[in-house]
Amino acid sequence: MTPPPTFLGMPPFPEAARSAVSNPQLRHNLRKATHTIRDKRAHVVGELSDWAELRAAGAAIKDRTLRRLDEYLVAAEAAVTAAGGTVHWAADAAEANRIVADLVRATGETEVVKVKSMVTQEIGLNEALAAEGIRAYETDLAELIVQLGDDLPSHILVPAIHRNRAEIREIFVREMAEWGVPAPPGLTDEPAALAEAARRHLRERFLSAKVAVSGANFLVAETGTLVVVESEGNGRMCLTLPETLISVVGIEKVVPTWADLEVFLQLLPRSSTGERMNPYTSTWTGVTPGDGPRDFHLVLLDNGRTDVLADTTGRQALRCIRCSACLNVCPVYERTGGHAYGSVYPGPIGAILVPQLRGVASGKVDPQTASLPYASSLCGACYEVCPVAIDIPEVLVHLREQVVEGGGHRAERAAMRAAEWVLDDAKRLRTVQRVAARSRRLLPRRAPGPGAAWSDSRALPEVPARSFRDWWVRERSAPPPQPPAASPQPPAASAQPPAEQNRIEEDDR
Amino acid sequence: MRVGLFITCVNDTLYPRTGQAVVRLLERLGCTVDFPTAQTCCGQMHWNTGYGKRIEPMVAGFADTFAGYDAVVTPSGSCGAMIRDNHPRAAARAADPGLSARVAAVVPKVYDLTEFIVDVLGVTDVGAYFPHRVVYHPTCHSRRLLGLGDRPTALLREVRGLELVDLPGEEECCGFGGTFAVKNPDVSTAMGADKVRHAAGTGAEVLCAADNSCLMHIGGLMDRQRTGMRVVHLAEILASTAG
Lengths: 509, 243
Prior knowledge:
By secondary structure, chain A is an alpha/beta fold. Chain A has helices at residues 13-21, 24-46, 51-67, 69-82, 93-107, 118-122, 125-131, 141-148, 165-179, 191-208, 234-240, 258-272, 305-309, 325-329, 331-336, 347-357, 367-371, 381-385, 392-405, 410-423, 426-438, 452-455, 468-476, 498-502; strands at 86-90, 111-114, 135-138, 211-214, 218-220, 225-230, 244-250, 254-255, 280-285, 295-301. Chain A has three domains: 48-303, Rossmann fold, CATH 3.40.50; 307-408, Fumarate Reductase Iron-sulfur Protein, Chain B, domain 2 (Orthogonal Bundle), CATH 1.10.1060; 411-494, no CATH class. Chain A has a six-stranded parallel sheet, sandwiched between helices. In chain A, strands 8-5-6-9 form a four-stranded mixed sheet. In chain A, a hairpin with a 4-residue loop joins β5 and β6 (225-230). In chain B, α4 (56-65) crosses α6 and α5 (77-92) runs antiparallel to α6. By secondary structure, chain B is α/β, with parallel strands linked by helices.
C-alpha cells in the first residue's frame, strides 16, 4: 500500500505557487470554478437588503461566544450528556485521534463512513484510523473524488475544485472497483452520470456501515444540539443510519442559542454555495430511542484554538464558519489553488488560521508556515466578502510581525533598517535621491540578485533626473541652505555632464 | 485654504511629474499648495511587511509636519489608506503617549486627491483635455480601504477628448501588493498579466489609476510585453490641458 498523500514537507508558498501558476489546466479549472461561485454568491447576497446587519450580527455573536467560551462549552457538555450523549475533551490531534480510534474499536467494527469534515482532516483522522486497521470512507462527492484519486483537498467547500469532470471520470473508472461498487460501463463525464456513479458506489456503504464519523458546523449550547449543513444528503445518511455516531468538533463551533443559529443559517449558504437556503440541514441532540444512532459521542477539540483565543488580534480567525467565500474571491488562491498553501485550510483564511494553530506567535515555526502570512497582496477582497467580518488583511499583517519577531528574514531586516535610516529623515532621503538621480544613466533596467524577483517580469522604473523634492525646492521655494560639507559625493557624479544636474524641465523624468 | 501636499516617497523619488501635476491642478483650481520638505514616508512598506513596530518616527514625522494645514492631499490611495487606517493603530502602541492625539488631529484632514477635488472643492470638471482612449483601474486600497467609489471616474468623464472605456475585472487586484511583488513574484506576475490582458483587450492606449506603485507594476509588465499601452497617473490626466 502506498503511503497516504500528505501536506508534510511542502515547500514554502512562493515555491509551491511557482509550479501551480505554470499549470494551464489547473489555472483554467480554478478560474472557471472560482468565478462561477463568486458570481453566484454576489448575486444572492445582493438580494438581501440587511446583509450588512446580518454580517455584523454574525461577528458579534461569535465574539460574544468566544469571550465566554468556557461557560458555553460546559453548558453544551451538560446538555449533550443530559440528552444521552457522551462528551470527550481532546487537547490536540493525537488525543482526538486516540479517542475516536478507541471508540470505533470498542464497537468491533473496522470500517466507518464519514461526513465531510474539515476538523477531521486537520487532525489527520483517516490516516490515524488506517494505522489502527480501521478504514474510513468519505461520502461527500468531492471528498470521494479526492480519496479515490489518492489526492489532497484543495478547497474547503469543494475539495476537488482542481479537478475537471474528465479527470473525475478517469478517477472513477480507474479506482471505484478497488474500493467497492465499480463505475458503470461506458461512464461519460456528464455531471449527472458522474453523480449517479457516485450514488451507486456510496449507497452500499451507507447501508452496511455501523459507525459514522462527522464534524459539525455548529453546536447549540442551550440544548446540546449539533448541526451539519450539507448539500448532497450523504451527511443525512451517515448521521441517521449507523448505530454509532462520533462527532469531532472544534471548540469554536459553539453558539449559545437557536436564535443565534438562525443568523448563521442565513449567512452560511449564501456565502459558501451561493444558495438562498441550505439543502440538507441535519440537527441532532444526544440519542433518541428507536430513531437514529443508539450511541453518540462528541469529541471537543482544542488543537491550538485556545492559543489563538489568547491573541487579541488573531482571535477573530475563530469566528470563521468555513464558508470559503474568501477563497473564491482571492486573486492569489485563484492562481495557485489550495495545495500551494500546504494545509487542509487554504486561501486567505488558511493563511491566518494555520500559522496560528501551528504556533507562529512562539517564533518557532517551519519556513512553510512562516511563508503563509505573506501569501497575500493585502487587496482586501476576502474581508469584503467574509460573512463574519474577519479582517483578514489586519491579521495577516499582525502575523507577519510575529514572523519577523521570531527572527526570520535576516537580510530583509537589514534592508528595512537601512530604509528606516533614510526615511526617518528628509535630509537623508534627499541625499539618497540625488545620488540615485546622478547615477541614473548607470542603473540597469534589469536588476541582479534579489531585484531579479521584480525585473524578471517587469521593467524597472526609470529614475528621474530630479526628485519632486528637488524640483520644489529649486522652483517653488526659497533657496535651501547649502548642504553640509560631509554630504557624500556620488561616484557617478563626474561621469555626468554638468548640464544634466542643473537642467530645468517641467516634466523631467 | 492651506493645502499641504503629501507627495509620498515613491512619487517623490520616482514620479516627480505626478507631483508637479498635482500642484498644477490644485493651483488651477484656486488652492494654495505647500510642500513641507520635512515629509518623508507614511511607513506603509514597513507596516505591511511586518515591521510596523519600527515606524513610530515616520508616523510622528507625518503628524508633526502636517499639523498646521487645513487639508492634506495625497495622490496615492494606498498611502492615504495607510495614514487613515494604520497611523492610529501605530500611534496607539507607540512609546510616545502624546502621539495618538497628534495623529487623531491630522488624520481627518487627509484626503486622496480625488476626494479633495470632488468633496471639498465640489468640482468634477477640472478643465482638462486628454484626447486618448483610457481605462481606469480602481486600485484595491483606493477602492476598498479609502472607498473612493465613482469619484475618479466622475472626474475622468468630464475630461475633454477622453474616451473612458470599462475595464473587465476591474475589481481584481493587479498583483503589486508592495513587497508581495518580490516575495511572491510568480503569483504577482500572473495576476498582473491578467490585468494587462484585460486592459489591452479594451483597445485603450492608457491605463490610469490613483496609485503609482500599482502603475509601476502594471506598466513594467506592459513594457516587457510590448503591449503598446502606457500607464499614467490620474493626476497627470486631470492636470493636462489643451494649451
